[in-house]
Amino acid sequence: MNLDNGQVTELYERMLLIRRFEEQSGRLYMEGKIKGFLHLYIGEEAIAVGVISALRDDDYIITHYRDHGHALARGMPPNVVMAELMGKATGSSGGKGGSMHLFDVRRGFMGGHAIVGGQLPIAVGLALSAKYKGEDKVVVCFFGDGAVNQGEFHESLNMASLWDLPVLFLLENNLYGMGTHVDRTHAGGRDIYMSADAYKIPAAQIDGMNVVEVRETTQQALERIRSGKGPVFIEAMTYRFVGHSVQDPQAYRDSSEIEQWRAKDPLDAFRETCIAEALLSEEETAQIDETVRETVAEATRFAEESQEPSLESLYDNVYDRTRQV
Amino acid sequence: MAEIILREAVSRGLREALDEDERVFIIGEDIGAFKGAYAVTSGFLDDYGPERIIDSPISESAIVGAAIGAALGGLRPIVEIMTINFMLLAMDQVVNHAAKLRYMSNGQMKVPLVIRTVTGGGGQLGATHSQSLEVWFATVPGLKVIAPSDPYDALGLLRTAIADDDPVIFAEHALLYRARSEVPDERYTIPLGQAKVKREGTDVTLVAYSRMVHVALEAAAILAERGMDAEVVDLRTLRPLDTDTVAQSARKTGRAVVVEEFWRTGGMGAEVASAIQEKAFDYLDGPVGRVGGVEVPAPYNGTLEAAALPTAGRVVETVENLYGI
Predict the structure, then answer these.
(1) ipTM of the assembly?
(2) Does B97 participate in catalysis according to the annotation?
(3) Which of A99, A149, A159, B10 is the most exposed place for a label (fewest CB within 10 A)?
């Protein structure tokens, strides 16, 4: 592994933060403190952390509605994310966005988009703006296997390749679009990365449970994209250990399948490798665990103690001027 | 001051924006080498180059999505969607994304985007190419909708739309490109949300927008011959909607008929009639009348199509039936 102690600490801590944050979100949902839909990223942490750790601060990230992991990996404060999940005034959107619509524009985190496939053309446009302005920013666009059957997927790949735009298309293939297995939705089977070939976009399929592999593949892709050679497509194979949303009883899949994938838990695998290679000690992992628990507890406390948004805020930000129209 | 046609007015507004602001670019189908389906961007490719006059694939959703992304990236895109009928392919990007990102991000994002498109029937183009769907967009908070009736308004409103920091739909009627009016050489703008009295009168108010303003003016001329002095109010923008000017006119005349090309069901006329009864009920001598498109898909045959569209004769008949003149 080409990483030092500081780097592996950061990767592990970020993945663990997402895991614990999501576990806590699920509990708060069951307690009725988080409403609406809640889609957890548990099992897929290595992708968000591996990819985003390879980015520059001025790169853009845009993603789907299972967005807490990407937001936290980008460094969005857990307090602000948790407050948004609880719909509080201190949340990232003052309680107007919710779980599926997290935004942190200052960090180049361009959302959480809840219409399947809808973020792909927007990613193309962000990349167009970068190229237009002569910047060497890259746009990472996360999407799931459910999105690849939308017309917008094909329109976006075509445009990005046609115009050599700096987009990294990052497919998180967790095998299910809601409850329907990819084998039943995609004529090309599980090797969705081959679709990119139709648009002359270089593509690879990787182990999305291995944070180091994700990070290194991303680094190679970024180098190519920044050199002006156009988009790259990465399909990261993964699995969500929990239901589509918190209320999903998962009648569509066997528990044995879940257990098989849980055996490949990206956090366990990474921790064990780091300890085996003496990049982390047992004491250090215990310390990270403690730090993360405190962070999540603090986020929960912050969100619970935050105020509800004022009724007056209802009309804010529909347009550039309040209450216009 | 010179008399120009509406096509020239829009073209002039676009050229000014391209000349004044490097962040402005135009994207659409066949706007460059083909010079625009309605020739509005004729000569633009030669003058501004392919980076700023972007011929796109036929991918309406990705065109609008890419423009949204470019707007988020700091540019000020102008989109041409060849006809408003094709906007249905971009509905997700317009309604779920452009209209909502400012609100869902609580003001972190803005989408300064103008979508120019061609609306209206009367050209014997059949059911899929003859609709007046601008009213659908006018129902959506977060969007602004403009539908001018003459070159003066088109240029003044287009300048405002391009300077606006929110998404604006600019609907040009296919049969109005050769409409003429005086347009000053010096720069002027027209604020959104201000209707205009196109003809003053005392006996009945005719409310219309886009091409129906001309139908209403024609009806007013016929009514004048029969001793009835009609006032014609041009809405100019459907959102924001200037109900004050309309109600003021209705209070003055005591009678009102709303004319629109869209089907009556759920049309702008319903909204305007409702506003009139709310704001001018005590001044009315009778019910507010409505003239709209006949509730059929637009037929190809010229005689049938003419029978499906509002005419001056139908407006006159409605006025006479309602007010017993």
Answers:
(1) 0.96
(2) no
(3) A149
